[in-house]
Design goal:
alpha/beta; Elongation Factor Tu (Ef-tu), domain 3; Rossmann fold; 3 domains; seven-stranded antiparallel β-sheet; seven-stranded mixed β-sheet; 5 helices; 16 strands; 33% strand; binds flavin-adenine dinucleotide; binds FE2/S2 (inorganic) cluster; flavoprotein; Dihydroorotate_DH_ele_sf; Riboflavin_synthase-like_b-brl; transport
Length: 285
């Protein structure tokens, strides 16, 4: 039975740095031992707005990286797009401020036991969890190709140190301000064929994940994706984040993407449900 990530803890984490990078903010928190339990794909749920705020729901952010600094404690990094009131509040907080944070939450990317040829695809800030993943895959001897896409160059998040852990990096923008003009799905089939890709890991908007899944299914490539379904509680209580997913027994169930995800097998998601409960789903009638 699914449940909240057993390693999850609620802590007050001090902001160590908060820097603007392109369209995003790269924020580093001091999190002590919690850094050791986070895996690529996990996320944090952060309380926003301060003590008297009406914004009672936590906001979810993918964990970009964690560092263990030994005696001086661990660090946890996220990449935030200032979007609505909660994320704008967070990006305005200065070093020294303590944030109420729950982490690590959710499922992590599955790591193959043998060296494989992996393609990592990120859309916008969806690239954030992929750099930590690429470091783990590289340490297992995998070949890693990465494709990052966004509407425009400012929205591609690709730090220099992150690029070191990949064999090739292709950037794609819709307006052509950097890299190839178009969408990530324009270049994925060619990379799968040329580099004989075994597995695709993806993170980004739902439409992009669905389109990647079609390509993966057509070519028989395994596809693990990190879903960013709207979340309210982040810990499995409210059912805001449910998504129809077909289990190994063939039965479709509405699963909570905050605890059964965010990382799921792309081939098991019923992508075209348009936030309805599909016919045949367990418990629908
Ligand atoms: C797993 C996951 C990982 C993510 N990773 C990142 C990341 O790395 N970087 C990043 O910038 N963003 C990330 N996001 C998106 C981020 O959570 C949202 O952009 C953020 O919640 C926006 O908050 P806001 O207050 O700025 O925006 P608003 O749009 O004002 O508020 C959005 C929030 O309102 C609540 N809400 C909205 N609709 C409903 C509803 N129908 N019912 C109940 N509650 C609702 C939710 O708590 C939601 O988080 C991620 C989201 C998920 C689920
Ligand atoms: S966000 Fe509340 S159950 Fe998933």
């Amino acid at each position: 039975m699914s449940g909240i990530n057993r390693e999850a803890r609620q802590i007050f984490a001090e902001i160590v740095s908060n820097k603007k990078v392109g369209a995003y903010h790269h924020i580093v928190f001091s999190v002590g031992e919690l850094a050791n339990s986070a895996k690529p794909g996990n996320f944090v749920a952060i309380s926003v707005g301060g003590q008297n705020s009406a914004m009672v729901l936590r906001r979810a952010f993918a964990i970009y990286r964690t560092f263990d600094r030994g005696a001086s404690g661990g660090l946890l990094e996220i990449v935030v797009a200032p979007h609505g009131a909660g994320s704008i509040w967070l990006t305005n907080q200065l070093p020294g401020f303590k944030v109420d944070l729950v982490a690590p939450l959710g499922t992590a990317f599955g790591i193959p036991t043998e060296p494989v040829r992996a393609l990592l695809v990120g859309g916008g800030y969806g690239s954030a969890p992929l750099f930590g993943l690429s470091e783990v895959l590289k340490s297992r001897g995998c070949r890693i190709d990465m494709v990052l896409g966004a509407s425009t160059a400012m929205k591609i998040y690709a730090p220099l140190d992150g690029k070191r852990s990949v064999n090739s990096l292709t950037t794609v923008t819709e307006d052509g301000t950097t890299g190839i003009t178009g969408k990530v799905t324009d270049v994925i089939p060619g990379i799968i064929e040329t580099n004989q890709i075994d597995i695709i890991y993806s993170c980004g908007p739902m439409g992009m994940l669905e389109a990647i899944n079609v390509i993966a299914q057509e070519r028989g490539v395994v596809h693990q994706c990190a879903i960013e379904e709207a979340m309210a509680c982040g810990i499995g209580v409210c059912m805001t984040c449910v998504l129809p997913i077909r289990g190994e027994d063939g039965v479709i169930r509405m699963l909570r993407s905050c605890i059964d995800g965010p990382v799921v097998d792309g081939g098991s998601v019923i992508w075209n449900s348009k936030r309805t409960i599909p016919e045949g789903t367990w418990g629908r009638n």
